[in-house]
Each structure stands twice: as structure tokens, then as C-alpha cells.
Amino acid sequence: MLATLLSALLATSPPPEQAPFELPAISTRAPVDTVAFDSERFHLVASVRAEQPARALAPELEALRDEVAALIGTDWTGRTEVRVALGREEYDAMALPGPRPPGWAVALAWPAANVILVDARSIASAEGKTTLRHELVHIALGRLGSGWPRWFQEGVAQMVTRERQFKSGHYSTMAIAIATDRLYDFDALSDGFPERPQDVEVAYAQSAEFISFLYARHGPVRFGELIELVGQGVVFEQAFARAFHTSLSLEEAAFKQHIALRYPWWPVIFMSGTLVWVGGALLMTFGFLRRRRAVAAHRQNQLRLEQLEDTAVILLGTLPYAVNDDAGPVIDPLPGLPWRVTSVRTGS
Fold first, then answer.
1. Residue 12 and residue 86: Cα distance in Å, rounded?
2. 87 & 178 share domain
């Protein structure tokens, strides 16, 4: 389905004509000792400490580019520069001049410059290839047009790489964000994503969901029109309205109604240890209430017995001739009572 998506999109949208790509001298935020070498379609620049993982990465990059090109229906022009750092200090230093990279990012793409930055430590992780594939999708979109909102880029990249599909973490992120009213307006995600990791997670998740929603709602032909219009230089919001025959704000409102039904909060309890804690809490509460009822019943019974005893004493103490204080014979004035009077004092 995803291959069909971008194949249809890009088949109707040839990349704009570009002048031959010339690699500039490496420009970084801070001085770094580097080594450089080329593969067929990549120029790799690695810090001295990251040279070995960078050389091992080169053939994998070629395979990943073939995979992305197959998914989107075409390869992009130019040789892509991949910068490989080792550790956070080198990663920040080897970024393009400008703002410091977000603390949560282990790979970044600058499509206009045809540059990718990656931390060598992330390459060896289980998600390393998915991360690189994700950034290559950014490069591909950047070679097709400009002015893409950040949420659109990230949503398409995630849809193509399928990195969130069927993951429980994605479900819980969306369900909790909806239940706590933490979804972002897409205007707030056009130029960039928030800094805090928990907020970034929500921004990525809802971007992926919105792209899936739009594709299911409008289909690949409309998406192809959107890609073509943006590639021709039409502002994204105008291209969106012309391609989908509606406004971004109306589609966003429909999406939020749809997503609230798609992600109810209660399954989150069953996908985590929360169920154990909730069950334990309920059992403790039930036991406490049961014990409290038993204690209350016992106290009520004691009070009843005390009231009966007090009533008997008062009743018998008011009867004349009940007792002879001089140790004379005791007269039982109420022989019909269920007890036998043996001694009652009437005096003070």
C-alpha cells in the first residue's frame, strides 16, 4: 500500500530541473577533525573516531537508497552527503551552522543542502536502518519540492518506513494525548517540533496518523496533485486546498473527531503493568470496605446490648418493693421476664 502511495504520487510529479550538484567544503557548527570518501551516490564525511563505522555504513546506504527509491517510485538527483559523528559533542559540532540539533535527535536531514547527519552509535541499534531510511525519505521529498510543513514530512517518512505500524507505544501515545487533550494544532508543527521528548513523541505520532487519514480519505491521485503543485512552487496550504478541494483546517477538525474514536484510552490499561496496579488497588479497597463494614456491624451489636442492659436497669430500679436493703427476702415483681431478678438496689 505504501509503495503504491508514493509511486502514484511521484509518477505524476517529476522532480524539478536542477543544476548539477556540487559539493561545498564541509561546513560545521564547530571545528572537527574529519575524513571523507565517496561511494556511488554518497559523499561520506566522518569524524576521525567514526571512520570505521562510516566505512561499514557506505554499502548499506546504497542499499537503503535503492529501497527508498523503490518505495517512492524514483531516485533523486545529486550525491547525498552523510556526516557520521561519534557521541553527542561531535554530533552537535558536525551539524550545519544554525540552531543546535534537538537533544532527542540521533539523525537529522537538511534536504535543501542534501545532507544527513547521524550518530554512529545509533547505526548499530535495532532501529538504526529505519532511522536512516526515514532521513533518506526527507532528502527525497526535499529534492522534489520545498516549503513542506514539518508534520507532512515526518508523517510521510513514517508512513513509508512503517516504523510505527502495530506498535503498542504508538497506540498509548495517541490514546493518552487524546484523553488529556494534548494533541497539537498542525499550524504549531509546520516549522518544527517541540523540544521535550514526550512532546516530540506526540508530534510524530499525530503526524503519522494525519497522513494516513488524508491518504485513506483522498487517495493517491489527490496526493499526486499535492506533490506536483508544491513542486511547481505553490504554497503548501494553497496546494492542499486545490488538490483536496477542502481546507487544511476543515480536514484537521475531521481528523480530530476521527482519531478520538480510533484511540479510546481504556486499552492502554491492558497494554502495560497498569492493570496489575489497578487490580491490586481494587482488591485493597474491597478488603478495606469489607473490614470496615464488619467492624461497624460489631460495634452496632455492642451498642444494642448496652442499650438493652441500661433499659433493664432503669426499668427494674423504678419498681416498688423490689429489694429489701436489710437483706430481707427478694421479691420478683416481674416473674414473666426472661431473666430472674436476684438483686436490685433502689436507694442511693
1. 40
2. yes
